[in-house]
Specification:
Layout (H helix, E strand, L loop, with lengths): L14 H9 L2 H11 L5 H8 L3 H13 L3 E6 L2 E9 L1 H4 L2 H16 L21 E2 L5 E2 L11 H10 L1
Antiparallel strand pairs: 1-2, 3-4
Length: about 160
Amino acid sequence: MGKLREPLDNIHSCGLPVALEVMGERWSFMILRAAFNGVRHFEDFLGVLGIARNILSNRLARLVEYGVMQREPLPDDRRKIAYRLTDKGYDLLPALIALRQWGEKHGLGVAANPVLCDARDGEPIAPITIRSHDGRVLDVRDLEWRMRGEAREEAMAAAL
């Protein structure tokens, strides 16, 4: 991993602390998982997650505050609220799947059931990977940090 180095002194230019501020603990991911599985109402989250009311309330409020989920009053009873994923929330699906796959590989030791499949052909999805701009699967030895703008110039110069 010799080439894979980024400046660690400027935490404000890294997206990881921002993501961890929003999603950096177990219950946020479990709520997200439930939301991807169609859970929408506070009482339903309580039932499927086995989470304490105050923790659920806090985590839902945080996910709404950061724009990962939105609160929608139900048309038939404005006192009841549905929690729905926003586009920002849907963008977390690859991260959620990657973490799940990592947990199956390094925690469970086996793929869990049910398995996530492509709806078109019914086949299980491939492992989440890092891919190059042209679709090649990359591993850590293929990666390096470069400043924007310099990356393309250096790559083009190396190709000559």
